[in-house]
Write a structure and sequence with these properties.
By secondary structure, the chain is an alpha/beta fold. About 30% of the residues lie in helices and about 20% in strands. The longest helix is centred in the last third of the chain and has 17 residues. About 0% of the residues have low confidence. It binds adenosine-5'-diphosphate (ADP) and zinc ion (2 copies). Its EC number is 5.6.2.4.
Amino acid sequence: MIVRVALDHPLAALYDYRWHAAQRPCVGQLVRVPFGRRSAVGLIFEVAETSDVPAERLKPVEQACEAMPPVSAHWLELVAFAASYYQRALGEVALPALPAPLREAERWERLFAREPRFAPTDAGRRALPDALPARATALRRLAGALIDEGVLGASQARAFHAKAIQTLEAWSAQGWVVEAGSDRVGSGVEDARADVAVDAQRVALSPQATPDQAAALDAIAQASGFESFLLYGVTGSGKTEVYLRALERLLLVRPDAQALVLVPEINLTPQFERTFRARFAHLASDAIVSLHSGLAEGARTQNWLAAHEGRARIVLGTRLAVLASLPRLATIVVDEEHEPAYKQQEGLRYSARDLAVWRAKQLDIPIVLGSATPSLESWHQAEQGRYRRLTLATRAIADAVLPTVRLIDQDLEKKRGVNTIEGMSPTLIAAMRARLERGEQSLIFVNRRGYAPALACDACGWVAGCPRCSAYAVLHKADRTLRCHHCGWESRIPRACPECGNVDIAPLGRGTQRVEEAIGGVVPGARVLRIDADSTRRKGSAEILFDNVHAGDVDVLVGTQMIAKGHDFQRVTLVGVLNADSALFSHDFRASERLFAQLMQVSGRAGRAGLPGEVMIQTRYASHPLYASLMRHDYEGFARAALTERREARLPPFAFQALLRADARTLEAALAFLDEAAASLDGLPGAEHVTRYDAVPLTIVKVMNVHRAQLLLESGSRAALQAALRAWQPRLREIKGGETRGLLRWVIEVDPLDI
Ligand code: ADP
Ligand code: ZN
Ligand code: ZN
C-alpha cells in the first residue's frame, strides 16, 4: 500500500511513502514520515496501490496520528483549491492551516491524552458549600468551581489542590460527585464564561425583528443549498441580530450543524463571542469557540480540535478560521465583508472572504456577507444577480437615525481668518465641549499613530528617516523616540538637526498622540483616551480600553481605524475626522473605496442609541464627490460612480489581476528579475490574454535594506490568468544569476489588494 503525503515544502505536490501498518491508511490522516535527514509531519491526500518511485527508494511511514480523526475529503479539496488558485504547493497550504502542536509528532501523545472529569450531583450542589470548614480555602474553591462550571477535568481540579483527586474520590463515595466520562486534558471549561452575565441581559432576549430583518431572515431560511446573500445594512441596522437569528434557526433545525462566523479583526472577537455566548447560553461551553492568532497556542489548538471533531457548533474567527476543519459546516457568515483585513498579506496570500464563498459553493450551503459598504466586487456580484441582496435600510433602534454629516471646509475657514488650534477647527472644538457638558462622548478619528509622522528641520529641510527603509521615522513623544513603522527601527529623538546643527527641529503633521495631547488642552476637564496599535500592544489591553469607553469613563476617544469598526458605542454622539484628504489622491485605485468605507464606518459609531449623532469632517477638498455621497449616506451612489470608473478603466471587478513581487539587495536586481520574468511569459498558455505592465518599484521601495519591486499582470479572463500563472512558475524558478544577482525571493499574489 502506498500513501501520498502533503508536506510543508514549496516544490512537489505529494510525496509517496510505503504503508505497512495493520489497519488500512485513511485519507486525511496525519502521519510522521522520514524527510531528508529528519522526520516531517504530513497529511495523507491519497492512498494508492502503486507508485512511480522505485520500491527500494520508497520509505515507510513512521507513525500515524490515530487519536485525531482524519480531516474530511471536503477539507482536503478546499486546501487543494486554495493552493492551486493562489499558486502555492499543496503542503504549503495544508500544513500551516493546522495548529502548530499537530505539526509536531512529539506532541501528539500529550495533546490527545485523556483524563477523568468530575461533575457535582444535586446532593453535592446542596451539601458541598456548607460541608467544608472555612479555613479549607483551596478545597472550598475547588467545590465552588465544580458547582459553577458543572464539570471539571482532573488537571483543572489539581490546579486548586495537590490532593484534589483523592478529595473528589472521597466526595464521590459520599454521593456528592460523579465521574462524568473522560475528556482530553485541558479541553474542559474555558474562562470565557466570566463575562457573559454583562451582556446576557442585553441580548439574551432577542428583540422583535424589524420588518427588514424579518424579510432578510426569511430569505436566508428559505435558501436550499448554495446561495450568496449580500446583507447590505446601514451601520446600526442590526446585522448582528440577523446573524444570530439565522444561526439560532439553523442550530434548531439541524442539531449537529456547524456555523462559521468570520470577523475582520481580533479586537472584535471578544465582543462577538460574548454576544453569541449570551444568546446561545444553552449550548455546552465548547460549542462556541473562537479562532484567531491572538489566542494562546493551547487554547487555539483545543478550539481547532473542537471544530474538527464537531463539538463546536459555532466557530467565530478571523481570516485564518476560513481554513478550519468543520466537518458539518452548514452556513457561513462574513461580517464586514469589505474589510481589507480579510486578505492575508504574508505566506499564503488568500482572501478569506473569497475562500468562504468558494467553501459555501463546495458544500452547497448558504453564505451571508454583511456590510454597510460592501466591497465593489461583492456589490457588482449583487448587481449582476449572482449574489442576492438583502437590504436593511434603517437603524434597528426606533429612535436612532443616521447621524448628520457635515464638512468643515478648511480652505474657507483659512480665507475667513479662522485659526485652527493644533489642526482642529474651532467648530469641532466647540462641538466636543458641548458633548462634554451634556455627558456624551466624542470620538476623533485620526488615521496615523504616533505623535507626528515626521520630524523636520526648518533651516535645511532635513527630515528624520529610517536608515533601513525609504520611509520617514515617526515621532513618538511619550517615550522620546523616533520609530520606523515599517521595520521597527527605533532611536532617541536627536537634540539638534544632524545636518546643520539647528536646534529648532519640529514635528511635521499629526498623529493620534499629538491629537490626544491637544484635546487635553482645548477641551478642559475631558477624560481623553487613545486607542491605537501603540496603546494596545499588550494582550487584552484593547478590550480593557474599550470597556472603559462602554462604561462611560471616557469623554473623548481618539484613535485610528481600530475605533472605527464594529463597536457598538452607546453614548458617542460626535465623530470628528481629521486629515482624511490624503487618500483622495492616492495612486492606488482602491484608496477611495477604502476611504469611503472607513468614513461610513466611523460615522456609524455616532448616535446609535437614540441620541442624535453628528459627524464633522475636516477637509480642504469640500467639493469632492466622495464627500458629497458621504453626506447623503449614499453608498449606492458612490458605488455606481466608482463601478463606472472601474469599468471604463478595465480595473477589478471588470478585470483580474496578479502581481509578481520581488525582493532583492538592489532595486536593479529586483527589476532585472521582473523584466526577465515578464519576457518569459511569452508563448505560455493563456498569456495572449494577459496584459503585462512595466515592472515598478513599490512606493516604499526599501524596507529593512531590502529593495522591493513588482510586476502587474491583468486579464479579462480569470481562467487565462490562472493558466498563465501556473505555466509561469517553473520558468520563474529557472531565472537566476546574471543581472538578477542579489535577488532574495519572489512571490506571486493573486487578486492583490494593494497595487
Ligand atoms: P450593525 O452590525 O448593523 O451595525 P448591530 O447589530 O450592532 O448593527 O445593531 C445595532 C443596535 O441595534 C444594537 O444595539 C442592537 O442590539 C440593536 N438591535 C438590533 N436589532 C434590533 C431590533 N430588532 N430591535 C431593537 N434593537 C435592535
Ligand atoms: Zn537642519
Ligand atoms: Zn525602517
